[in-house]
Amino acid sequence: MLAIEIKAPDLTQTTSSEAIAKLLQVLPHVLSYATSFIVIGVIWINHHALFHFIKRVDRTILVINLLLLMCVAFISYPTALIGEYGSSLPVVVFYGLSLAITGFAHNALWFYVLHRYLKTEITIHQTVVQKATVWTLSYPISYLVAAGLAFMSLNLSIILYALIPTFYLLPGIIDKQLIKQA
Amino acid sequence: MLAIEIKAPDLTQTTSSEAIAKLLQVLPHVLSYATSFIVIGVIWINHHALFHFIKRVDRTILVINLLLLMCVAFISYPTALIGEYGSSLPVVVFYGLSLAITGFAHNALWFYVLHRYLKTEITIHQTVVQKATVWTLSYPISYLVAAGLAFMSLNLSIILYALIPTFYLLPGIIDKQLIKQA
Amino acid sequence: MLAIEIKAPDLTQTTSSEAIAKLLQVLPHVLSYATSFIVIGVIWINHHALFHFIKRVDRTILVINLLLLMCVAFISYPTALIGEYGSSLPVVVFYGLSLAITGFAHNALWFYVLHRYLKTEITIHQTVVQKATVWTLSYPISYLVAAGLAFMSLNLSIILYALIPTFYLLPGIIDKQLIKQA
Amino acid sequence: MLAIEIKAPDLTQTTSSEAIAKLLQVLPHVLSYATSFIVIGVIWINHHALFHFIKRVDRTILVINLLLLMCVAFISYPTALIGEYGSSLPVVVFYGLSLAITGFAHNALWFYVLHRYLKTEITIHQTVVQKATVWTLSYPISYLVAAGLAFMSLNLSIILYALIPTFYLLPGIIDKQLIKQA
Questions:
Q1: Cβ separation A33–B63 shorter than 8 A
Q2: Are D4 and C5 in contact (CB < 8 Å)?
């Protein structure tokens, strides 16, 4: 995995208040790190829910998983960038696009599982499948939109980047269906 | 995960005794690293014991786990800081607060499991649950107190930071109850 | 594991177009990283398929696995090098040789499993085993050939490095046999 | 885990032969890395064999495991040091001591499992247990001896460091007993 490294600030010969100020300068890094962590966590949690429907881990799933893992591992790079240069338009757009691509990789897994395993499940309603598809697709699309809004306001983009995954921490449509069936 | 990197000291053109002196300068880093490792380890061991009571990994547990994992992964940063600047008040307080927050994240898991799964267990005595709750809560609170004592003495704080987790390596109340029931 | 670290470019006091140009300079790193990731992923996927035939993880398998893991963990080093110095002949050859050696380590696992476990399986045709052996051996040999072609054209080598694993993402001979038998 | 970082050499404006020379300068790092990897691997493999005898992962095992893991994670630091300063006596001794301490941590696990679980196993001969104990203890003691020999010859120590684990890759006494019983 690509490592994120937050450089420790130089605190030699500083007063306490200067040290606090320098420590607070790291805050954007911490926020970008927390955002990326939750984004990846949301994908991981939904991944977990999705695997309830998979009977046998076939080669296609392994390949999609590999691409997803590659995207996830790569995210540390735009995360470090936006933590350092949060006021640079290309960096903010690049961060949003990276999260969007990772979301699309996760979508690929959903669509594969849907067509290969869920189509034959009579117990699952078509409306549930449709809602879950919209819910899943809206994740990367939200990041595309948030990345696009960076041309208007960088701060708006950054706030949206952090807000989007929190919606997905709530129980999703797939989970609710699972609970109903249990 | 955030990587902790201990910079290798420059040992070119040094005598053996100078090299030993330079290697010993790394000692604070090693101590802070060991402390953080044991703190995380204690949480992991108690985590292990806690999961005996969980019937099904539900979404709430996944979300709390995600936040806990985020705290754990973040700890490497204050660890690197206190290893470098152990005589800086803000750094020592920051380290203690980070460990306290991680402890509270772990507490959240305990309280969730308690209310969702243990309340219905007739076999577990209410007094055991109360003792375990006090035991669990006292972990992050000890770190808050130790962080507060840094305003009196930095060394006292650092010694407490290292001592607190060793108490929790002893068999906990949840474990003892588990053994009794087995 | 050896960590790959992509240095964030210095974007202070740059215009948007300069920032984009600097971000694009990281592209070779991203490509070399993606290539290595897929190479390791292919080995992991085939590893997964191979373990279907293993009844008990014996000590020889653990030792080969250890050597394979060591090669895999080492790959990050030539990956970082080729990302930085893609126009240096020794670096390009070194990268190819590292991937070839990793492939041979994986081959060792295949040959061991073949002689220890598959020889006694009556259900598997000898022709299938032969095809799978050729398929497996051709992986590291392709990297040797690609590394050799670097003396003619560096770009040809680099393109081949990236193309070779994509062939192996397709269902392999072992998998097809497995599906037939299921 | 502490990250080992091998700095990529600066290959800008070098001829092919200069680049090769610079790449070869990294060789000591690669050797120290490989040695540490195999040392940790040997412990991991024996760990694997040992866990066959453990009925329930109890708290003591978790605590010893935690200390073992801490030692293992720490090894990357002396590894990076000896790769850089292989001709410095304190560094070579430090490396050997680190490996010895890690070995003793693993021994603690062996002695615990022996007294807690194996004493009651009637099927295992006392002579087998004694041989296995000598075999296990001789691992860290060999590293102590090799570290001591550094005062005579640094190269002798380094060669021994690399040779010792290879002996332990051969099937151990615990394994042979396991195979006999199967």
A1: no
A2: no
The mean-pLDDT minimum among B100-109, B112-121, B129-138, D120-129 falls in D120-129
Q: How confident is the model at residue B159 (pLDDT cuts 50, 70, 90)?
A: very high
Give the mutation candidate from C1, C88, C94, C101 for the D interface (greatest D CB count, under 10 A): C88
**Chain A residue with Cα closest to B66:** A41
What is the C-alpha separation between D100 and D82, in angstroms, rounded?
15
Q: Which of A133, A4, A141, A119 is nearest to A53 (CA)?
A: A119
A6, A8, A171: residue with CB nearest B84: A8
> Is residue C30 over pLDDT 90?
no
Burial annotation C68-101 (CB, 10 A radius, 16+ → b, else e): bebbbbbbbbbbbbbbbbbebbbbbbbbbbbbbb
Between CA A109 and CA A113, with CA A111 as vertex, the angle to 5 degrees is: 65
Mean local confidence (pLDDT), A72-80: 85
- Would you call C44 and A59 a contact, using CB atoms and an 8 Å cutoff? no
Q: What is the tens place of the pLDDT at every residue in B35-44?
A: 888 888 888 8
Is-contact A118 A53, C-beta < 8 A?
Answer: yes
Number of other residues whose CB lies within 10 A of the CB of residue A89 = 16
Cβ contact D127:D76 at 8 Å: no
Per-residue CA distances from D126 to B15, D49, D129, D131, D177 (Å): 50, 18, 5, 9, 12
Cα–Cα dist C116/A116, whole Å: 35
Please give the share of chain B, as a percent, with pLDDT higher than 70: 85
Mean pLDDT along residues D130-157? 92
* Res C4 pLDDT > 60: no
As a whole number, mean pLDDT of residues A85-89 equals 89
Which residue, among C116, C114, C136, has the nearest Cα to C126 in the 3D structure?
Answer: C114
DSSP letters, D67-113, are HHHHHHHHTHHHHHHHHH-TT-HHHHHHHHHHHHHHHHHHHHHHHHH
**Nearest-CA residue of chain A relative to B64?**
A169
Of the listed ranges A151-165, B125-139, D7-21, the least confidently predicted one is: D7-21
D121: closest CA of chain C, how far (Å): 23
Mean pLDDT of chain B: 83
Is the CB of B70 less than 8 angstroms away from the CB of A38? Answer: yes
pLDDT, position B93: 95
Radius of gyration of chain A (CA): 19
Q: What is the mean pLDDT of residues A145-151?
A: 96
Three-state secondary-structure class, residue C47: helix
Residue partners of A164: CB distance under 8 A and separation at least 6: A39, A139, A142, A143, A146
Residue C150 has pLDDT above 90, yes or no: yes
CA distance A64 to A70: 10
Distance from CA of D162 to the nearest CA of C (A): 14
The pTM assigned to this predicted structure is 0.80
**Residue A75 has which token pair?**
């995210």
